[in-house]
Amino acid sequence: MDSRNGSVSEALLDAEIESFFDSAPPLKDRAGIIKKLKEFIEYNSTPPGKGSPRRVVCVTSGGTTVPLEQRCVRYIDNFSSGHRGATSTEYFIKAGYAVIFLYRRGTFQPYCQSLPEDPLLECFECSDDSTIQVRQPHTEAVKRAVSDHHAAIAGGHLLKLSFTTIFEYLQILQSIAMSMKDLGSLAVFYLAAAVSDFYVPWKSMAEHKIQSASGPLDMRLVQVPKMLSALKKEWAPMAFCISFKLETDSKILLEKAEMALKKYRMHMVVANELSTRKEEVTVVTGNEKILVCRDKTQADSDVEEPLIELIVGRHSAYVKDSDL
Ligand code: PMT
After folding, report:
1. Rounded to 10 degrees, what is the CA torsion of 55, 189, 30, 222?
2. To pair with 48 at 20 to 30 A between CA atoms, which of 67, 146, 222, 275?
3. Can you tell me whether residue 310 is helix, strand or coil?
């Protein structure tokens, strides 16, 4: 691509991004979200006791939806349980990072891994005098989840923000990135959310429930602009950026991850295949492909532990280099 073509396609992408945000429905409580972000980042920039500024990572988790109607009855969804994002959040906090956890409502939450699927109904019981107590087999798991979660929130290490639609996700991501801009190289983006590639622009979307009596549905979906470029170029240019690449065909996975690394100038791309994503991932950097595996000799091990360890090491080197 010559530089003229390059700047034409950059200008096109900028226009697509602008049009996406201009036509998106206004984000509910934008001012409240920005206030929370400002306070969280300020607190971690000058933590109590004159400690050095904490590194801050934005972890995105879960899938975005694409509404088909403004008063939404139907939507297109993206696969993601949120397990990767929630588990990674725990390891980042353990490594001393402050985490902004941007998650899809209803998906996996940090510190809740050892709880059953419906914790409220399965973990608690009502005794004769109407007090609520934890049922015996779940006592330890509930104690650990509650105390670790509350400690992370009270210690200012964890800020949770939720989304459902692609509109909410990208608007909140932009606000987070802009709030983190001044952190420079101490900021990290770990983009594990499964983000929709196509959407129905708000203005061309039906207001009411689409009627089946009108016959087959003919609907035009527009491409969601890849925000990774804007993130890297404008929103938080000094941040250390890790994106994910998910494929079901292992033959094209690494090639696609390498393409994303170069095109969006990511520091790392974590390549994972759907069926083996909990066992192994390959971290693609400018000159390496590092296979990261779960320790299969341990029943309760996960791939996020060695993955976050690797990322923390690389981010430390990046911070050091940026200081020179
Ligand atoms: O949640 P789990 O069940 O534990 O599963 C984890 C996971 C498989 C969802 C996760 O590991 C993962 O791979 N997440 C990214 C999936 C994805 O959306 O891949 P993609 O090829 O569509 O996008 C690649 C990157 O571009 C992503 O980091 C995404 O944030 C970004 N993107 C995507 C679309 C878009 N319009 N703009 C973007 O910036």
Report:
1. 170
2. 146
3. helix
- Tell me: the pLDDT tens digits for 144-184? 999 999 999 999 999 999 999 999 999 999 999 999 999 99
Within 10 angstroms of residue 127's Cβ, the number of other Cβ atoms is: 8
CA–centroid distance, 121 to ligand 1, in Å, is 32
Report the sign of the C-alpha dihedral through residues 141, 143, 147, 149, in that order.
Answer: positive
Is residue 192 a contact partner of residue 59, using CB atoms and an 8 Å limit?
yes
Residue 307's CB is within 10 A of a number of other CB atoms, namely 26
Please state the atom number of ligand 1 nearest to the C-alpha of residue 246: 13
Q: Which two tokens stand for residue 170?
A: 């990208």
Question: What is the reported pTM?
Answer: 0.94
Helix axes 83-94, 304-323, angle to 10 degrees: 50
The answer to whether 271 and 245 have CB atoms below 8 angstroms apart is yes
Q: What is the DSSP secondary structure assignment for residue 52, as one 8-state letter?
A: P
Which ligand 1 atom is nearest residue 243's CA? 28
**Interface pTM (ipTM) of the complex?**
0.95
What pairs with residue 199 in β-bridges? 222
Give the model confidence (pLDDT) of 118-149 as tens digits.
988 999 998 888 899 999 989 999 999 999 99
Nearest-CA residue for ligand 1 atom 18 is 194
Mutate to test the pocket of ligand 1, among 191, 223, 244 (most ligand atoms within 8 A of CB): 244
Instruction: Report the amino acid identity of residue 35.
Output: K
Q: What is the largest CA-CA distance in the chain?
A: 77
Within 8 A by CB and 6+ apart from 204, the residues are: 220
**Cβ < 6 A, ligand 1 pocket:** 80-84, 191-195, 197, 224, 226-228, 243-246, 272, 277
